[in-house]
């Protein structure tokens, strides 16, 4: 696996719409190449005797219980709306021919 060049890093930054300074580009180039070096080391490991797993750690639900609570009234929900009609938001048409 070849190392990333400065041009590669600049291209990735451009695609990600990141406005990076020369110093940040240099730092990122070093960090990305370090990550690739670590993957290179990992790729040398013999994993033939290790069964595939979908999850390497125990999975637990960290979400709260779904409990019904009092909702906002339509007036409260629409209080900041720039435009409304009855109990609905008014938005511009975004699909052609849906007039």
Overview of the molecule:
The protein has 99 residues and is mainly alpha-helical. The protein has a domain at 6-43: Histone, subunit A. 36% of the residues lie in helices and 4% in strands. It has three helices and two strands, in the order H-H-H-E-E. It has helices at 6-15, 22-43, 74-77; strands at 84-85, 88-89. A two-stranded antiparallel sheet has the order 1-2. The chain is flat and about 65 Å long. The model has no long low-confidence stretch (mean pLDDT 90).
- Class inferred from helices and paired strands: mainly alpha
**Mean pLDDT, as a whole number?**
90
Count of strand segments: 2
Low-confidence stretches: none
Count of DSSP-assigned helices: 3
Largest sheet, spatial ordering of strands: 1-2
What portion of residues belong to β-strands? Answer: under 5%
| CATH fold node name of one domain | Histone, subunit A
Which series of helices and strands comes N to C? HHHEE
Give the helix/strand layout.
Blueprint: H1 6-15, H2 22-43, H3 74-77, E1 84-85, E2 88-89
Antiparallel strand pairs: 1-2
Helix pairs in contact: 1-2
Q: Main traits of this protein?
A:
3 helices; 99 residues; single chain; mainly alpha; two-stranded antiparallel sheet; Histone, subunit A
Structure described in brief:
The chain contains three helices and two strands, in the order αααββ. The model has no long low-confidence stretch (mean pLDDT 90). A hairpin with a 2-residue loop joins β1 and β2.
């Amino acid at each position: 696996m070849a190392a990333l060049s400065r041009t590669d890093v600049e291209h990735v930054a451009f695609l990600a719409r990141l406005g990076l300074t020369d110093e940040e580009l240099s730092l990122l180039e070093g960090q990305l190449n370090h990550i690739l070096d670590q993957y290179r080391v990992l790729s040398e490991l013999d994993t033939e005797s290790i069964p595939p797993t979908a999850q390497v750690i125990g999975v637990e639900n960290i979400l709260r219980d779904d409990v019904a609570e009092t909702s906002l009234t339509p007036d409260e929900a629409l209080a900041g709306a720039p435009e409304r009609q009855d109990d609905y938001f008014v938005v511009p048409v975004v699909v052609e021919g849906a007039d």
